[in-house]
Amino acid sequence: MLASAIITFREVFEAALVVIIVLAYLKRTGKLSYVKAVWTGVGLGVLCSVLLAVVVESVMGGLTGPSEKIVEGVMMLTAVLFITWMVVWIFSTRNLSNEIAQKAERATELGSSGAWGAAGIVLLISMAVMREGFETAIFLNAASSTGGASLSGALTGVALALILSYSVFKGSRLVNIKTFFRVTTAMLVLFAAGLFSHALLEFQQAGLISPVIDHIYDISWLMNKSSTTGSLLNSLFGYTGRPSLVEMGGYLGYLTVTYLLYVAMRRSYRTGRTGAGNSACS
Known about the structure:
The protein is mostly helical.
């Protein structure tokens, strides 16, 4: 339940944040005639997200045996790729609000006709909502394979995200957006590491890869996946009490690569700031 709540909470809030920033930009610039286009884009994005979720679910249905394991593993890897892309984007984005506002400005200036500007806003919003919706479908499907998805959890996450979004829209200072993204990004990285490790397990069980060493340690006597705590840790972070060498290597390898990406992005940002500072002084 908790895994699905975190997923929908994060994804719905991201989509809502785009809507909030665009609405704030339209209000600030006096382009209120485009507000209707914003809500049209939201409706279109939600509709497309539902259709994509149905497609994802239909792809997974009716499979058994090794085929099911392989498809589940591929879906997990797809989720990992989306999460990694999201994390890299967050690492490289220093001012989310300005970036989205600039996109909204370009969208309203697609042409001299107001209709073209409205179409640009609809496209911007619908693509943002659809992207988050598609990612949610992929993440929840992957989480369901590890026992971490539930309808009640997903709905709880949606409700909390909408409450938080409304609070931000009304100008609440209680919400620190930067802290929110830092915490949830860290949790998503751990979730992705668990998914990557579990995908390798699926491929092992399908006979595609070798575990090398079946169990490098066994602490299932202390906490197994069927226990309450073990089940929670498994659904959130991919915990297993008896990992193979390939599973553990994949888990640690993913965390290492993500950390190195983070370090590289921070170094690049600092270098860019230093270069900009030197140019300003010269």
